[in-house]
Amino acid sequence: MRRSSGLRQLWERALPAILALLLAACYTPPPETDSSTSLSRTLSSANDQGFASIESPLHLAFPRDHAAHPRQRIEWWYLTARVQSPQGRRFGTQVALFRYGLQPEDAAARSDWSGQQIYLAHAAVTDIDGDLFLYDEHWARGAAGLAGAQSHPWRVWANDCSITSASAEAFLPLELDCGGSGFRYRLSLNGTDSPVLHGESGYSRKSDAPGSASAYYSYPRLTAVGQIQVGDSTFEVSGQAWYDHEWTSGVLAADQAGWDWFSLRLSDGSALMLFNIRDRQDQVVARHGSLIAADGALQALTADDIEIESSGHWLSPKTGVSWPVRWRLHSASLGLELDITTLREDQELDTSTRYWEGAIDARGLRAGQAVSGEGYLELTGYTPR
């Protein structure tokens, strides 16, 4: 969710100051903020600025809907990959490119300084076998080529972090080029160009709160080939990636704090996307997801289909947040039992906002047969206790 990709957390108390600084000049680095602020203000369903709400089933069409939707307030493009070198060294990579509109517009970027779109990129790499986690963020205004989204060829970028279609004729393959201090990855991503439309044909309800919905689709099984640079070392890598694109004008109600979002590719060829929406007492108020069969068939999931609960936490020594990084999943209807574990407890991003996002593995049973999985987990809205 994203996301973000795809929901990803943005700003609350510091947001007006950050945006004012970014709008005041070609580029001004964001000030230090209180990272413990919640998502509810920025991602609330309240809409008093004229943005278009997503309140009913959609009619997504491609390639049109690969592009930006600046009539909605928030949008994100999100990629995670699990890759390894020929020698077996394992990595996880994550990049999320966010667009936040100050007011609804018809263009997601402008050549002059009149545009009202702010872009934020978060990039991270988990060197699983090298016991290292690095992350960074990039800010830019959607003006003068600093950041934006375009259609021909398709491209979204913020400063030097970009996801780009390799040709103007097709969405896939994609070229990912992103990084930060001490790391960079350049990956080519390809697969069958058949996006998975979550929820009801891409209309993804988050909870029963009015306006709590997004447009949401994924490519859960892309091949990934390229290079990862960590420090002075460069590794040729290959593996699989997950791409999300989501847009909305608000998904959280005033009494909701955040979500737990899971993406898993399973060894039987299926893929699972699942998220919890939590209130301010950390109680789950909604659960939705998708099971994507090996042949691409989609089954929408609700709380009646899946039970999932945390089975272990990691206490961050830096922020004091206790993150639920181990989980148990049970589904009688799917015949699925999974133990989900993180490959590194410290995958906390303490940037202008704070969240946990990192590589996970899963092991268990599907219809009585052993099954395993790999993917990513995102946790938002948790605060120090």
Q: Could you name the key traits of this structure?
A:
13-stranded antiparallel beta sheet; single chain; ten-stranded antiparallel beta sheet; 385 residues; disordered N terminus; AttH-like fold; 23 strands; mainly beta
The helix/strand class is: mainly beta
> What is the subunit arrangement here?
single chain
Q: Name the CATH homologous superfamily.
A: AttH-like domain
Instruction: Just give the CATH class.
Output: Mainly Beta
Q: Return the string of H and E elements.
A: HEEEEEEEEEEEEEEEEEEEEEEE
Question: Tally of extended strands?
Answer: 23
Q: What is the CATH topology descriptor?
A: AttH-like fold
Overall domain count: 1
Question: What separation lies between the terminal Cα atoms?
Answer: 25 Å
Proportion of β residues? over 45%
Helix content class: under 10%
Major sheet summary line: 13 strands, antiparallel
- Taking Cα atoms only, what radius of gyration do you get, to the nearest Å? 19 Å
Q: With helices defined by DSSP (H or I, 4 residues minimum), what is the helix count?
A: 1
Principal-axes shape call: globular
CATH architecture: Beta Barrel
User: How would you state the average pLDDT, rounded?
Assistant: 87
